[in-house]
Amino acid sequence: MPAQAHSTGPRRWREQRWLVEEAIRNSGIEWDQPRLAYTLGPVGGDGAAGDMLQIRTRVRKVSDFVPVVRSVALRRERLAQAAEDDGHHVTAGEHWFAAALLWSLACWPIWETTQELIDIDARKNAAYLKWAAHAHHQVERVDIPFRDTTLPAWLHLPPGHDGVTPLPTVLACGGMDAPRETVVARQEDGLLARGFAVLAFDGPGQGEAPIHGAHVTPTAWIEAGEALMTWARNRPDIDADRLVCWGTSFGSFWITQLAATQPALLGCAAALPVFEPGAATLFEQACPTFKARHMWMAGLSDEAAFDQMVSGYDLRPLVSEMTVPWLVVGGEADELSPVDWVHELAATCPAPTTLLIYQGARHSMTESMAPVLGPPWRSTIADWLADRITGREAQSEYRYVTTTGNMEHRPHPRKADTTS
Q1: 227 within a domain of the structure (yes/no)
Q2: At 249, which CATH number?
């Protein structure tokens, strides 16, 4: 991490730096979230576990993060090039994909738009394009016009697509720390397997977008939704009448903003929801790394100005008029955004709203057996989106998964609110 980053960011980040360092020494690189799992999980293959082990073993403080991850990414690039030289293109593709996701991981703690960040992001894009040349499906870099800049995206078409037939498409994004490269798995991706095209994009503030000046604001994603829909309507290989969307973690907030203002969408899935107005728990009680990164995403260095900006984060006015069917999937014990806000928003949403809540699960769906023994949440989302495309009518229901994996059907918050 650049030396100047030590003096930037929110007050808690500067004053409690020693606590963060102590947490890393005691808990490892995933002290604040399971970033290795969600970043390298889509890689698959034999090497991902080794990459994780190297990083977990060698990162002992914040300043270790970038150089350690860079070294692991460079190793993968060397392996990729050697495999290409030997004519082993499947192996080369696996290594290029891993290198791209490692470069995306190396970007995470650089909370200033420095030359180092620009260079690492360029290495990420180059590696991803090299993987695309070996991929089992078509992958295309697209840049979606937005204000006076663009939103970067990867368009994935399912294997065997004829290049002509318009496809049902998922507009998909990750969260604060999950760039577009983590959205689609290298092999056996669930959305592609169901015949979807996937537009994996970085919205305002995410991934590469802030490097080009597209920062997050309380309304930026509403504008981005119009840009994405306009782009989709002009692609002959995308069926503009069969569009759905999916966002994860803070992407759940943004994708809900998008769906609430784009009634042509057939469905919206919001996973690991961050729905608390102002995100007070995330920014004031959780690890200060979340707020430090989000300040960069907003293009703000003044903490008071940032606090004023995020006070405008509020889904209630939009959700109360939402018409797009809505699926919300989360953990009952979410430590970053209280689950009560899921219930409150569901009670006021007039659209068909399905809740899938896992007993005892934290924000990342960890520390509970409910996501392990119950229905897999990612597959459930993919199936729900597929149902919206085929015209199956969405229902308002509350599914509660217990720690034994059993599914309980509970009263929907809208019904409970009406009868109270």
Answers
A1: yes
A2: 3.40.50.1820
List alpha helices for 301-396, DSSP H.
303-310, 316-319, 340-348, 370-373, 377-390
Question: How far is residue 178 from each of residues 112, 205, 289, measured CA to CA in Å?
Answer: 17, 11, 14
Give the residue from 279, 369, 281, 275 showing the smallest Cα distance to 328: 275
pLDDT in tens, 262-304: 999 999 999 999 999 999 999 999 999 999 999 999 999 999 9
Is position 286 within any domain? no
Look up residue 413 and give its two tokens: 């918050």
> Residues 346-382: pLDDT tens digits?
999 999 999 999 999 999 999 999 999 999 999 999 9
Spatial contact of 100 and 127, defined as CB atoms under 8 Å apart: yes
Is 0.85 topped by the overall pTM? Answer: yes
Within a domain: residue 301? no
Quick one: pLDDT band at residue 418, thresholds 50, 70, 90? very low
Our count of domains for the chain comes to: 2
Burial class of 148 by CB neighbour count within 10 A (0 to 12, 13 to 18, 19+): exposed
* Structural domain range at position 22: 1-135
**pLDDT for the residue numbered 34:** 86
Does 189 lie in the same domain as 265? Answer: yes
The letter for the amino acid at 7 is S
Domain boundary residue, one of 95, 110, 135: 135
Tokens of 126: 């180059």
Residue 308 lies in a domain: no
User: Whole-angstrom Cα distance, residue 330 to residue 271?
Assistant: 6
Which token pair is 405?
A: 């994996």
